[in-house]
Description:
The chain has helices at 18-25, 29-40, 46-61, 70-78, 86-94, 113-120, 122-127, 133-152, 269-279, 285-299, 314-321, 326-339, 377-385, 389-394; strands at 100-103, 106-109, 154-167, 175-182, 190-198, 203-204, 213-220, 226-237, 301-302, 323-324, 344-352, 357-367, 371-375, 396-397, 403-407, 432-435, 445-455. By secondary structure, the chain is α+β, with helices and mostly antiparallel strands. It is 33% helix and 25% strand. The chain starts with 17 loop residues before the first helix and ends with a strand. It has four domains: 6-65, no CATH class; 70-127, no CATH class; 157-236 and 425-455, Sandwich (Immunoglobulin-like); 239-406, C8orf32 fold (Roll), CATH 3.10.620. Strands 14-13-12-11-15 form a five-stranded antiparallel beta sheet. The protein has a four-stranded antiparallel beta sheet with strand order 5-8-3-17. It has a four-stranded antiparallel beta sheet with strand order 6-7-4-16, with no helix packed on it.
Amino acid sequence: xxxxxxxxxxxxxxxxxxxxxxxxxxxxxxxxxxxxxxxxxxxxxxxxxxxxxxxxxxxxxxxxxxxxxxxxxxxxxxxxxxxxxxxxxxxxxxxxxxxxxxxxxxxxxxxxxxxxxxxxxxxxxxxxxxxxxxxxxxxxxxxxxxxxxxxxxxxxxxxxxxxxxxxxxxxxxxxxxxxxxxxxxxxxxxxxxxxxxxxxxxxxxxxxxxxxxxxxxxxxxxxxxxxxxxxxxxxxxxxxxxxxxxxxxxxxxxxxxxxxxxxxxxxxxxxxxxxxxxxxxxxxxxxxxxxxxxxxxxxxxxxxxxxxxxxxxxxxxxxxxxxxxxxxxxxxxxxxxxxxxxxxxxxxxxxxxxxxxxxxxxxxxxxxxxxxxxxxxxxxxxxxxxxxxxxxxxxxxxxxxxxxxxxxxxxxxxxxxxxxxxxxxxxxxxxxxxxxxxxxxxxxxxxxxxxxxxxx
Length: 456
């Protein structure tokens, strides 16, 4: 979608015409696209036109997320769990543990379904025939840093990271290219942020940018890596929040952090009813926010999900389906808090241990006199699955320093704008790429972040 205006993303809150929706649900994506073409020939409101144009792009991306037939998916899972049966697979599917859609009337299964099962399903994980030594040492590093935060009241880490992006060979073409790579942004916990080196000339976004990135613009003759090295210090403190200490806040000063942001931070009837149920009988903002956190960490199961752009309402997706990844859980918390009159906002970037880095999202909630405090529902949910109640409670109000924060706001435009719709219009963890004639999706490029040095 060349010439895409970023604010048009809000039109995803508009319902699809029923005839298009029927074909989409049956997996007839070509038929749905054909009907969209007919609708676009009519005299229709601008918001519906924007919705249909976005839907066309969504229909291109959606089937790419579901590559496996039933037999292929079963074979994929048997690589880790050799004795899993087809009947067991179907039971997990019916329980909502395995994500699937119809493509041309045939069941197709989500690319990362096996990763989800091995991560969160204890019975499947225990039957898997692979050890995870790296995960064990990373887990121990996390437990050690949390213990330090509790004992000393704070902790600080220094990180030196190299992030890189390379266009896949089958997607490479000569000519102008624009590349965005996330870098650390100014926020409560980061300081001494430095851009140390890069693969070429770049345009850095201001340190206060809501979604900070460096932008490379180049005429490529040969394919190569784009990379940037940066360092920062992350310092966090420990706070034990008490209801009796909570003070009123000036809601006008936090208007932005209390409002809807379509299409995902949406105060639907279902979300309003859920917020009312979770906060019934509670007056204290801390107790309300804690009740919301308790519900998400004990009722919403972690699950890898398809590209955010292909889900029309991320928050209700988790609230109704009872599953979602770190970003979706963070959005659910933010939405429910805002409905309950509690300021809440987004943070995201990387989870960075001394050994590795990966994408991660979490939330912040404003509670006076404590100010902005951290809430990581997915890490809290992980602690709940492992029976570690103390660690689950820790992630309501506190955070480990194993984070690189690039984004302080959800669904924000880059400082150096893209000409085409982003691969992820909402978050910025892996970066973006585009040519003069088209934008590139996540299937078109490879991203990685390497920990070059770390001191705790």
